[in-house]
Amino acid sequence: xxxxxFAASNSRKSINKKLATYxxxxxxxxxxxxxxxxxxxxxxFSVDREAxxxxxxxxxxxxxxxxxxxxxxxxxxxxxxxxSAAYKNLFDWCSRxxxxxxxxxxxxxxxxxxxxxxxxxxxxxxxxxxPFFAGHVKAHLSIPSFYENFDLxxxxxxxxxxxxxxxEAVAALQQREPAAA
Length: 181
Known about the structure:
Layout: E1 2-8, H1 15-24, E2 31-35, H2 47-53, H3 57-67, E3 71-76, H4 85-97, E4 105-112, H5 120-129, E5 135-143, H6 146-149, E6 150-151, E7 156-157, H7 160-171
Parallel strand pairs: 1-2, 1-3, 3-4, 4-5
Antiparallel strand pairs: 6-7
Helix pairs in contact: 3-4
């Protein structure tokens, strides 16, 4: 299985990238590619800019990464209860190029933050909207209080119950859909 993982954040020290990377490593036998949104920085989306300049090559390249994968793990940073500006902008460009941004891929959506809610608000928004963009969310999980629950030195989730839920979430990417009757 070719697995794409990324944090919906452009922070160079992203805790969501740490979580996405760790989660991707839990899928045994997967060919994992972890990408950084900083490598896909695009101009601020506007319909005027789109009409004048077309679609950015980096947005096309990001869409191709999704298309070339078998499954995707995204860990969402929450900025004021919503998506990070970097992710939202790239996603807006991608949706103008290909409305089926997620290319009918199975997805695991995660979120974390230093706070007790762990990015739950943005995670709910992402999970709720994914089907409109041809995304099949197999599992979603919020990890609260990142710095208390994640061992930065070893790069692992140290909270046993949360780790078990994360293992189950990632394993859902390998589950086959039941055959239609």
